[in-house]
What we know:
With 261 residues, the chain is mainly alpha-helical. It has one domain (13-251). It is 81% helix and 0% strand. The chain is built from 9 helices and no strands. It has helices at 2-50, 59-79, 81-84, 93-121, 129-153, 158-169, 172-190, 198-220, 226-255. Helix 2 crosses helix 5 and helix 4 packs across helix 8 (198-220). It is globular, with a radius of gyration of 22 Å. The N and C termini lie far apart (77 Å). The mean pLDDT is 85.
Amino acid sequence: MVRARQGKLAESVEEVQARNLTVYKLCVEPAVSLALGLIPGAFWLWYLRRQDDHEPEPWRLVLLVFLLGGFSTFAVLAIRPCFEDLLPLGTGPDRTVADAFLLTAPLEELLKLAALFLGIFWSRELDEPLDGIVYGTAVGLGFASFENIHYIARESSLAAQGQLTVLRGFTATLVHTSASGSIGYFLGLTRFSERSRRPWLVAVGVLLAVSFHGTYDAFLANRALHWIALLLVLPAMLFLLGVKLRWARGQSESYHPGRRR
Protein backbone atom coordinates (compact mmCIF):
# COMPACT_ATOMS: atom_id res chain seq x y z
CA MET A 1 0.00 0.00 0.00
CA VAL A 2 2.85 2.38 0.85
CA ARG A 3 4.50 1.64 -2.48
CA ALA A 4 1.19 2.26 -4.26
CA ARG A 5 0.84 5.64 -2.58
CA GLN A 6 4.42 6.52 -3.41
CA GLY A 7 3.79 5.54 -7.02
CA LYS A 8 0.67 7.71 -7.22
CA LEU A 9 2.58 10.61 -5.61
CA ALA A 10 5.40 10.28 -8.16
CA GLU A 11 2.85 10.25 -10.98
CA SER A 12 1.21 13.39 -9.56
CA VAL A 13 4.56 15.17 -9.35
CA GLU A 14 5.37 14.20 -12.91
CA GLU A 15 1.95 15.44 -14.09
CA VAL A 16 2.47 18.77 -12.33
CA GLN A 17 5.95 19.12 -13.81
CA ALA A 18 4.66 18.28 -17.28
CA ARG A 19 1.81 20.77 -16.88
CA ASN A 20 4.22 23.48 -15.71
CA LEU A 21 6.54 22.75 -18.60
CA THR A 22 3.65 23.05 -21.04
CA VAL A 23 2.58 26.38 -19.55
CA TYR A 24 6.17 27.60 -19.75
CA LYS A 25 6.51 26.55 -23.38
CA LEU A 26 3.17 28.02 -24.43
CA CYS A 27 3.08 31.21 -22.36
CA VAL A 28 6.33 32.16 -20.68
CA GLU A 29 8.79 31.45 -23.52
CA PRO A 30 6.85 33.48 -26.14
CA ALA A 31 6.43 36.35 -23.65
CA VAL A 32 10.16 36.36 -22.88
CA SER A 33 11.08 36.28 -26.58
CA LEU A 34 8.64 39.10 -27.29
CA ALA A 35 9.98 41.26 -24.46
CA LEU A 36 13.64 40.68 -25.28
CA GLY A 37 13.04 41.30 -28.97
CA LEU A 38 11.30 44.62 -28.30
CA ILE A 39 13.61 46.03 -25.62
CA PRO A 40 16.44 47.30 -27.92
CA GLY A 41 14.02 48.80 -30.43
CA ALA A 42 11.95 50.47 -27.71
CA PHE A 43 15.05 52.04 -26.16
CA TRP A 44 16.41 53.41 -29.45
CA LEU A 45 12.93 54.60 -30.46
CA TRP A 46 12.63 56.57 -27.21
CA TYR A 47 16.13 58.01 -27.65
CA LEU A 48 15.72 59.07 -31.28
CA ARG A 49 12.29 60.62 -30.77
CA ARG A 50 13.80 62.80 -28.03
CA GLN A 51 16.12 64.36 -30.62
CA ASP A 52 13.09 66.15 -32.08
CA ASP A 53 12.88 68.63 -29.23
CA HIS A 54 11.23 71.55 -31.06
CA GLU A 55 8.04 69.72 -31.98
CA PRO A 56 8.17 66.05 -30.93
CA GLU A 57 6.23 63.69 -33.15
CA PRO A 58 3.02 62.22 -31.65
CA TRP A 59 3.53 58.77 -30.20
CA ARG A 60 0.48 57.41 -32.00
CA LEU A 61 2.10 58.02 -35.39
CA VAL A 62 5.57 56.95 -34.29
CA LEU A 63 4.18 53.67 -32.98
CA LEU A 64 2.03 53.22 -36.11
CA VAL A 65 5.10 53.52 -38.32
CA PHE A 66 7.03 51.25 -35.95
CA LEU A 67 4.36 48.56 -36.30
CA LEU A 68 4.19 48.95 -40.08
CA GLY A 69 7.94 48.45 -40.20
CA GLY A 70 7.52 45.34 -38.07
CA PHE A 71 4.76 43.92 -40.25
CA SER A 72 6.91 44.44 -43.33
CA THR A 73 9.06 41.55 -42.09
CA PHE A 74 6.16 39.23 -42.95
CA ALA A 75 6.12 40.65 -46.46
CA VAL A 76 9.84 39.85 -46.74
CA LEU A 77 9.19 36.26 -45.67
CA ALA A 78 6.44 35.95 -48.27
CA ILE A 79 8.26 37.58 -51.19
CA ARG A 80 11.85 36.45 -50.69
CA PRO A 81 11.36 32.76 -51.66
CA CYS A 82 10.07 33.87 -55.07
CA PHE A 83 13.50 35.28 -55.97
CA GLU A 84 15.95 33.00 -54.16
CA ASP A 85 16.15 30.62 -57.14
CA LEU A 86 17.56 33.48 -59.22
CA LEU A 87 20.68 33.69 -57.05
CA PRO A 88 23.88 31.86 -58.05
CA LEU A 89 23.97 28.24 -56.94
CA GLY A 90 26.05 27.08 -54.01
CA THR A 91 27.23 28.86 -50.87
CA GLY A 92 30.24 30.72 -52.27
CA PRO A 93 31.04 34.45 -52.24
CA ASP A 94 29.16 35.04 -55.51
CA ARG A 95 25.89 33.94 -53.94
CA THR A 96 26.63 35.86 -50.73
CA VAL A 97 27.27 39.14 -52.54
CA ALA A 98 24.33 38.66 -54.91
CA ASP A 99 22.05 37.87 -51.98
CA ALA A 100 23.22 40.93 -50.05
CA PHE A 101 23.01 43.51 -52.86
CA LEU A 102 20.35 42.11 -55.20
CA LEU A 103 17.85 40.50 -52.84
CA THR A 104 18.10 41.08 -49.09
CA ALA A 105 19.03 44.77 -48.94
CA PRO A 106 16.82 46.08 -51.78
CA LEU A 107 13.82 43.99 -50.78
CA GLU A 108 13.94 45.01 -47.13
CA GLU A 109 14.64 48.69 -47.79
CA LEU A 110 11.93 48.99 -50.45
CA LEU A 111 9.38 47.40 -48.15
CA LYS A 112 10.37 49.75 -45.33
CA LEU A 113 9.99 52.64 -47.78
CA ALA A 114 6.49 51.37 -48.59
CA ALA A 115 5.71 51.29 -44.86
CA LEU A 116 6.89 54.89 -44.57
CA PHE A 117 4.72 56.01 -47.46
CA LEU A 118 1.72 54.19 -46.06
CA GLY A 119 2.16 55.41 -42.51
CA ILE A 120 3.30 59.01 -42.67
CA PHE A 121 4.09 60.52 -46.07
CA TRP A 122 0.67 62.07 -46.51
CA SER A 123 0.38 63.27 -42.92
CA ARG A 124 0.65 66.92 -41.96
CA GLU A 125 2.91 65.89 -39.11
CA LEU A 126 5.73 65.40 -41.63
CA ASP A 127 6.53 69.10 -41.71
CA GLU A 128 10.33 69.26 -41.42
CA PRO A 129 13.35 67.15 -42.51
CA LEU A 130 13.96 65.97 -38.93
CA ASP A 131 10.56 64.30 -38.92
CA GLY A 132 11.65 62.14 -41.84
CA ILE A 133 14.57 60.83 -39.78
CA VAL A 134 12.36 60.14 -36.76
CA TYR A 135 9.80 58.19 -38.78
CA GLY A 136 12.45 56.52 -40.92
CA THR A 137 14.31 55.22 -37.88
CA ALA A 138 10.98 54.13 -36.36
CA VAL A 139 10.28 51.96 -39.42
CA GLY A 140 13.75 50.44 -39.21
CA LEU A 141 13.40 49.78 -35.49
CA GLY A 142 10.04 48.12 -36.03
CA PHE A 143 11.51 45.87 -38.69
CA ALA A 144 14.54 45.04 -36.54
CA SER A 145 12.40 44.35 -33.46
CA PHE A 146 10.18 41.82 -35.23
CA GLU A 147 13.28 40.25 -36.75
CA ASN A 148 14.88 40.09 -33.28
CA ILE A 149 11.83 38.30 -31.88
CA HIS A 150 12.12 35.70 -34.65
CA TYR A 151 15.79 34.96 -33.94
CA ILE A 152 15.55 35.15 -30.15
CA ALA A 153 12.65 32.69 -30.09
CA ARG A 154 14.87 30.11 -31.78
CA GLU A 155 17.36 30.09 -28.89
CA SER A 156 16.88 27.29 -26.37
CA SER A 157 18.13 28.99 -23.19
CA LEU A 158 17.42 32.28 -21.48
CA ALA A 159 21.14 33.05 -21.28
CA ALA A 160 21.53 32.64 -25.04
CA GLN A 161 18.46 34.79 -25.62
CA GLY A 162 19.88 37.53 -23.43
CA GLN A 163 23.23 37.45 -25.23
CA LEU A 164 21.51 37.63 -28.61
CA THR A 165 19.37 40.56 -27.43
CA VAL A 166 22.45 42.58 -26.50
CA LEU A 167 24.34 41.56 -29.64
CA ARG A 168 21.55 42.41 -32.07
CA GLY A 169 20.61 45.52 -30.10
CA PHE A 170 23.94 47.11 -31.01
CA THR A 171 24.46 45.60 -34.47
CA ALA A 172 21.57 44.50 -36.71
CA THR A 173 19.10 46.81 -34.98
CA LEU A 174 21.33 49.83 -35.62
CA VAL A 175 21.95 48.78 -39.23
CA HIS A 176 18.22 48.81 -39.95
CA THR A 177 17.85 52.06 -38.02
CA SER A 178 20.60 53.83 -39.95
CA ALA A 179 19.51 52.55 -43.36
CA SER A 180 15.86 53.47 -42.88
CA GLY A 181 16.82 56.75 -41.23
CA SER A 182 18.64 57.69 -44.42
CA ILE A 183 15.55 56.89 -46.50
CA GLY A 184 13.39 58.87 -44.08
CA TYR A 185 15.74 61.86 -44.27
CA PHE A 186 15.51 62.08 -48.05
CA LEU A 187 11.79 61.36 -47.97
CA GLY A 188 11.39 64.28 -45.57
CA LEU A 189 13.32 66.52 -47.95
CA THR A 190 10.87 65.73 -50.75
CA ARG A 191 8.12 67.58 -48.89
CA PHE A 192 10.07 70.81 -49.33
CA SER A 193 11.49 70.27 -52.83
CA GLU A 194 10.27 70.83 -56.36
CA ARG A 195 8.16 68.02 -57.77
CA SER A 196 10.75 67.20 -60.41
CA ARG A 197 13.39 66.54 -57.73
CA ARG A 198 11.28 64.35 -55.46
CA PRO A 199 11.74 60.99 -57.22
CA TRP A 200 15.49 61.59 -57.37
CA LEU A 201 15.71 62.36 -53.68
CA VAL A 202 13.85 59.16 -52.80
CA ALA A 203 16.08 57.21 -55.20
CA VAL A 204 19.22 58.61 -53.56
CA GLY A 205 17.94 57.66 -50.10
CA VAL A 206 17.10 54.11 -51.17
CA LEU A 207 20.39 53.71 -53.07
CA LEU A 208 22.42 54.77 -50.04
CA ALA A 209 20.45 52.51 -47.73
CA VAL A 210 20.78 49.50 -50.04
CA SER A 211 24.49 50.14 -50.62
CA PHE A 212 25.39 50.31 -46.92
CA HIS A 213 22.99 47.54 -45.90
CA GLY A 214 24.29 45.26 -48.65
CA THR A 215 27.91 46.01 -47.81
CA TYR A 216 27.30 45.23 -44.13
CA ASP A 217 25.57 41.92 -44.93
CA ALA A 218 28.20 40.85 -47.47
CA PHE A 219 31.12 41.41 -45.09
CA LEU A 220 29.26 39.97 -42.10
CA ALA A 221 28.67 36.70 -43.96
CA ASN A 222 32.42 36.33 -44.58
CA ARG A 223 34.06 34.82 -41.49
CA ALA A 224 37.45 36.28 -42.36
CA LEU A 225 36.14 39.79 -43.06
CA HIS A 226 33.12 40.11 -40.76
CA TRP A 227 35.06 42.57 -38.58
CA ILE A 228 34.84 45.08 -41.45
CA ALA A 229 31.06 45.04 -41.14
CA LEU A 230 31.18 45.60 -37.38
CA LEU A 231 34.12 48.00 -37.07
CA LEU A 232 33.95 49.99 -40.32
CA VAL A 233 30.61 49.75 -42.10
CA LEU A 234 28.30 50.03 -39.09
CA PRO A 235 30.20 53.00 -37.54
CA ALA A 236 30.15 54.72 -40.95
CA MET A 237 26.39 54.27 -41.16
CA LEU A 238 25.90 55.65 -37.66
CA PHE A 239 28.22 58.58 -38.38
CA LEU A 240 26.30 59.56 -41.51
CA LEU A 241 22.99 59.26 -39.68
CA GLY A 242 24.42 61.47 -36.93
CA VAL A 243 25.48 64.09 -39.51
CA LYS A 244 21.99 64.14 -41.03
CA LEU A 245 20.41 64.28 -37.58
CA ARG A 246 22.64 67.15 -36.49
CA TRP A 247 21.90 69.14 -39.64
CA ALA A 248 18.16 68.48 -39.42
CA ARG A 249 18.06 69.51 -35.75
CA GLY A 250 19.85 72.72 -36.67
CA GLN A 251 17.16 73.47 -39.24
CA SER A 252 14.28 72.49 -36.98
CA GLU A 253 13.80 75.84 -35.26
CA SER A 254 13.32 77.61 -38.59
CA TYR A 255 10.31 75.37 -39.25
CA HIS A 256 8.87 75.86 -35.73
CA PRO A 257 10.09 79.22 -34.40
CA GLY A 258 9.40 79.73 -30.72
CA ARG A 259 7.92 76.23 -30.25
CA ARG A 260 10.74 74.52 -28.36
CA ARG A 261 9.47 72.16 -25.66
